Amino acid sequence: QVQLVESGGGLVQPGGSLRLSCAASGSIFSINAMGWYRQAPGKQRELVAAITSGGSTNYADSVKGRFTISRDNAKNTVYLQMNSLKPEDTAVYYCNANLEELDYGLGHPIPGTYEYWGQGTQVTVSS
Fold first, then answer.
1. Measured in whole angstroms, how far is the alpha carbon of residue 34 from the centre of its chain?
2. For residues 62 and 69, what is the distance between their CA atoms, to the nearest angstrom?
3. Residue 107 confidence (pLDDT)
4. What one-character-per-residue DSSP string does 7-42 give?
5. Tens of pLDDT along 71-97?
6. Exposed (0-12), middle (13-18) or buried (19+): which is 47, by Cβ within 10 Å?
7. How far apart are CA 96 and CA 98, in angstroms?
8. Residue of 15, 11, 2 lying closest to 123 (CA atoms)
9. What CA–CA distance (Å, rounded) separates 83 from 76?
10. Phi/psi-derived region of residue 100, left when phi > 0, alpha when psi is between -120 and 50, beta in every other case
11. How far apart are CA 26 and CA 4, in angstroms?
12. What whole-number distance in Å separates Cα of residue 54 and Cα of residue 57?
């Protein structure tokens, strides 16, 4: 089993900054891509930013130039630095990981890749 634990959300004024963190733990063999999604009230969940194990990144047009995604592979942790926050950035932010799981008993990965989600962290941008 794998767990993703997010932290760093909160209330911030427009123009402010926040840094989200997401740590993955459990029966992990390797992590392929990690990313951040968000869901505002009444809207569908959308991709904010993603990063591969090699460091390639992808951003939603609405956050380019303001948000930066990074990861620490040794710690199985992904970060989202959010600057110049706007009220429209208000949403619940979810961490996502696409990974291979380890079978501890056999000592090798379980066939296939699996997706896991964090519990979500609220980001509110308001004056």
1. 6
2. 14
3. 83
4. E--EEE-TT--EEEEEEEEESEEEEEEEEEEEE-TT
5. 999 999 999 999 999 999 999 999 999
6. middle
7. 7
8. 11
9. 23
10. beta
11. 9
12. 9
